[in-house]
Amino acid sequence: MRKLILAVAALAAMLNATNMRRIIQIPSGPYYDGVVCCDSDHDSLPEVYFLNIASACHEVWEFEGWNRFGLVFEDTAFQHPYIRVRTAIPFAAGDIDNDGLTDIVCITVEPDSIDPDKFYRDVITIESPDSLSYPSRLSWYYRYGDNGTIPCPTYYPPDLDGDGHMEIFCGTPTMGAAIWENTGNDQNELVWHS
User: Fold this and answer.
1) Half-sphere exposure of 135 (CA within 13 A, CB side)
2) H-assigned helices in 64-160
3) What is the pTM of this model?
4) 13-51 per-position pLDDT tens digit
5) CB atoms within 10 A of CB 119
6) What are phi and psi of 119, to 5 degrees?
7) Exposure of 69 in the CB half-sphere (CA atoms within 13 A)
8) Which tens digits make up the pLDDT trace of 80-99?
9) Is the alpha carbon torsion for 27, 54, 56, 90 positive or negative?
10) How far apart are CA 48 and CA 59, in angstroms?
11) Best CA proximity match to 177, nearest among 164, 166, 190, 189
């Protein structure tokens, strides 16, 4: 009897799986990294934000209703003299400074301006220019090490110390675990590291 029940359960699972269809395939593998889900333009439609390594830019795919997602934003224009913002790996989305704009926390590299064999690791935030746009501008960065491993686990935890200021947590290879606390609009301060 027990074998019959297991066989019927397995058959039901197989039939149920055959009725499913893929509605979106989140890119993965060596050419995509750091998938973050959010609603950065505040239109109540969920978005998938990720780094497309093949094109060296961030892409935003937005839910378009009835099992469809479409490419709505590809950040191909955003450059900074030293910090590589376009190829930053996104880890978390939120509004760390409570200004109503979406902040994406990322890890990236910064080449040394003099020594081509040296580079630095940065934790950065990319922010929306306004509340109806997708994140596209560097709003804050902190150099946490040089020639280290990337990526490092990074996220926005809830308010850790209960003081009303949000934090960024990052497990860095050189500083160990590190916490930056928001101190104002686009301003974060290192408050602890192990």
Assistant:
1) 37
2) none
3) 0.78
4) 554 544 555 555 555 554 456 788 999 999 999 999 988
5) 18
6) -140, 160
7) 16
8) 555 677 778 898 999 999 99
9) positive
10) 8
11) 190
- Count other C-beta atoms under 10 Å from residue 120's C-beta: 18
Structure tokens at 155: 């996220």
Length of the chain measured in residues? 194
Q: What is the dihedral of CA 127, 104, 124, 55, to 10 degrees?
A: -90
**Amino acid letter at 108?**
T
* Burial of 163 from C-beta contacts in 10 A (0-12 / 13-18 / 19+): exposed
CA atoms within 13 A on the CB side of 153: 4
Residues 159, 49, 133, 171: is their CA dihedral positive or negative?
Answer: positive
Query: In which order are the strands placed within the sheet that holds 176-184?
Result: 154-155, 167-172, 176-184, 187-193
Helix (H, G, I), strand (E, B) or coil at 153: coil
Computed on alpha carbons and rounded to an integer, the radius of gyration of the chain in Å comes to 20
Structure tokens at 55: 């094109």
